[in-house]
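Researcher: I'm preparing a figure for a lab meeting and need a structural model of a single chain. I don't have an experimental structure, so a prediction will have to do for now. The sequence is pasted below. Please return the structure as tokens so I can convert it later.
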Amino acid sequence: MEPNYMALLVHSVRAIKYRFIAVTTGSKESFGEFRVSPQTRTPNEIIHHMVDLVTKTGVRIREGHFNVPEAMAVDFEEEKMRMLQGLDDLTGLLETVSLDLDLACRLLQGPLLDITTHIGQLALLNGLHGNRIPRQDYFSQVIQ
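Model: Understood. Here is the structure written out token by token.
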């Protein structure tokens, strides 16, 4: 494989951050507690889970395991800030380490793509809550 797979992994985390910001910007104050049905998570619960995934990904890279106690849930704005900080921390970590290709692929196919699934859920829920997410040309976007 090309030696740039680490750069691709870093870019993937940056793209996740960009999309997370895109789907949560303009949310109404009550969005965090919006629940479609008793069987679904609220946006706040979804983001809390995403923060857990980001945290566990960093621990897996640094310590070789996913065993991390789940953080206490906080309000929607604080969860968003924790998510953004977690993505920044993960980006910084990925810029300083070298992972073998198998681990990089597993992190992408597991926690990182799980996070992208949840970003899609947030976009859908935000629209149902009355905040239509504007269309974007993600292909042409410069992500740093």
